[in-house]
Automatic annotation (TrEMBL):
Tree of life domain: Eukaryota
Lineage: Eukaryota, Metazoa, Chordata, Craniata, Vertebrata
GO molecular function, one term: metal ion binding
Location of the Rieske domain: 17-112
Name assigned to this protein: Apoptosis inducing factor mitochondria associated 5
CC per GO annotation: cytoplasm
Keyword set, alphabetical order: 2Fe-2S, FAD, Flavoprotein, Iron, Iron-sulfur, Metal-binding, Oxidoreductase
SUPFAM superfamilies for the chain: FAD/NAD(P)-binding domain, FAD/NAD-linked reductases, dimerisation (C-terminal) domain, ISP domain
InterPro entries to which the protein is assigned, alphabetical: FAD-oxidoreductase/Apoptosis (IPR050446), FAD/NAD-bd_sf (IPR036188), FAD/NAD-binding_dom (IPR023753), FAD/NAD-linked_Rdtase_dimer_sf (IPR016156), Reductase_C (IPR028202), Rieske_2Fe-2S (IPR017941), Rieske_2Fe-2S_sf (IPR036922)
Family: Belongs to the FAD-dependent oxidoreductase family.
Pfam families from the UniProt entry: Pyr_redox_2, Reductase_C, Rieske
Source organism: Cyprinus carpio
Amino acid sequence: MVLCLVAGLEPEEEVTDVVCDEAKLKDGEMMEVEVGDHNVLLVRCDGVYSAISNQCTHYGAPLSKGVLSGHRVRCPWHGSCFNVKTGDLEEYPGIDCLPCHKENSESKMLTIFSVQIQGQPKRIKWMGARDQAVLHTVMLLGGGAASLMCAETLRQENYGGRIIMVSRDDLLPYDKTRLSKIMNAESESLLMRKIEFFHKYDIEVWLKKEALSIDTNKKTVTFDDGLIQCYDQILIATGCRAKSLDCPGVDLENVLMLETPEDMLEERGVRFYMNDAVAEVQGQNRRVKAVKLKSGITIEADLLIAGIGVNPNSEFLKGSPIRMDSKNYVIVDKYMRTNITDVYCAGDLTSFPLKMAKGQNVSIGHWQTAQAHGRIAALNMLRREVELNIVPFYWTVLLGRTIRYAGYGEGYTEMVLKGRFENMKFLALYLKDDEVVAAAGLNVEPAVSVVAERLAEGRVITKAEADVYTTWLQLE
Ligand SMILES: Cc1cc2nc3c(=O)[nH]c(=O)nc-3n(C[C@H](O)[C@H](O)[C@H](O)COP(=O)(O)OP(=O)(O)OC[C@H]3O[C@@H](n4cnc5c(N)ncnc54)[C@H](O)[C@@H]3O)c2cc1C
Ligand SMILES: *[C@@H]1O[C@H](CO)[C@@H](O)[C@H](O)[C@H]1NC(C)=O
Ligand SMILES: *[C@@H]1O[C@H](CO)[C@@H](O)[C@H](O)[C@H]1NC(C)=O
Ligand code: FES
């Protein structure tokens, strides 16, 4: 018999339940069990049981539907990974750990401590405090995913110096990935962390301040309000911005760029006009009335939202010796270092070597990738010499359905399709040199996470494996 005990913060919240028969869970397997009203993931690994909360700390997916690989479970929705023994987060996009637990394998009884934080089944990773005696400043330019994870990692690694995050936004770091997906999002509800969090861990956040230039010799940054601030180490994570349309009519009132919380939108029937371009935005009374395409087609429109790629926010680096590529992305190595000592760069702004793409220099605009960059930059600021080694994971919502994508498919030479686009259920495997380099899927969870996990382990998925329907993809 496997016994589970779940305890909340209050002693009276303790519940013990017989959850399964030992024979029911084989080694290397996991299952969802109910203990009281707690949803728990029970795992058996090397003969030892462990248990964590079954609810992903990102958007709450059931981890039991994900992928178990050794001591970690990968979420079926967006690829977050958790250690099944400690509940610790191992891969983004989630940012919090699962409630910690204790196990008692001798008596074959499990004891799970489910710690409820603010009524949510999440646990913030331990973080150290600021030590006023440490006279060292890390400045983080930008208030996005990369900067926030850099700040948190510094404190998790017990960095005691000063952390200043500076952003030209007027909002604390927020979840940009939810922008294009929910309607009428309240700015407050999009925040990654509340203001109390930044106070508690002594992370200074300066909003509405734009960096105008950097002096890497003097180690100073000049801001738009005239302030000149010194740093000892700096992370540049100013990201990219949406490109604006370059044609007559783009200054009309109801032309929006998909970028900030104000751009919300309502999803309707979507139609694609491929191999075409906008020639002119036609208006009436300062508002869009129609969009004329190069092909001659004119589309009536009440609102125009443009999402046509991005430009890196690196103008303020011009005149500095920081190396950039021809498109003005900042070049970093696998430690997120630029070619200037103590200057690091992370997130959408970088051109970085992607290990799974044989070290090719790439620029990838994914939330999870930016987070991982921020973390690796922090570790290397602290001289931990940890290399970046991620499998990019991206998701987007089209007409209410989530398309998931893992890997790096640029330059693929072949695609193996399972299922059908028309049925809104498919998995596309992208191959290069007879190896799977990326996967995109709709309604086939956890197949994309399975591919991500395989690639993360450094295991090759051959064309022969891709061709046949096999159990490893967990596709029925
Ligand atoms: C609408 C939308 C939807 C998205 N959806 C998804 C998704 O579903 N999944 C996914 O994986 N990715 C998604 N992305 C991409 C994802 O948001 C980015 O990859 C991620 O935000 C990159 O993080 P970053 O930290 O590099 O930069 P950003 O998050 O862009 O942050 C840059 C920060 O720098 C600040 N800044 C810029 N210039 C200056 C300056 N000179 N001085 C001071 N501050 C400055 C900005 O104000 C901002 O705070 C989406 C992006 C958008 C815009
Ligand atoms: C960094 O790269 C820039 C641009 O290539 C170059 O001008 C500069 O000398 C380099 N600096 C160092 C310290 O390598
Ligand atoms: C990536 O960029 C760095 C710096 O410019 C360069 O030295 C390296 O050769 C590039 N790597 C590849 C695989 O092109
Ligand atoms: S819900 Fe688990 S990674 Fe998003």
